[in-house]
Amino acid sequence: MARITAGLTTSHIPAIGAAIDLGKTGEPYWKPLFAGYEWTKAWAATEVPDVVILVYNDHATAFTPEIVPTFALGCADEFPPADEGYGARPVPVVQGHPELAAHMAQSLILDEFDMTLLYKLDVDHGLTVPLSLVYGQPEEWPVRVIPLAVNVVQYPPPTGHRCYMLGKAIRRAVESYGEDLTVHVWGTGGMSHQLQGPRAGFINKEFDNAFFDRLVGDPDNLALVPHLEYVREAGSEGIELVMQLIMRGAMGPEVTELYRFYHVPGSNTAVGHMVVRPSDVFVTD
Amino acid sequence: MTAYTSEFDDIPGTRVFTAQRAKAGYNLNQFCMSLMKAENRERFKADERAYLDEWPMTEAQKQAVLDRDYNAMLELGGNIYFLAKIFATDGLSYLQAVSTMTGMSIEDYQQMMISGGRSPDGWRSVKDGS
Question: How high is the ipTM of this complex?
Answer without folding.
Answer: 0.95
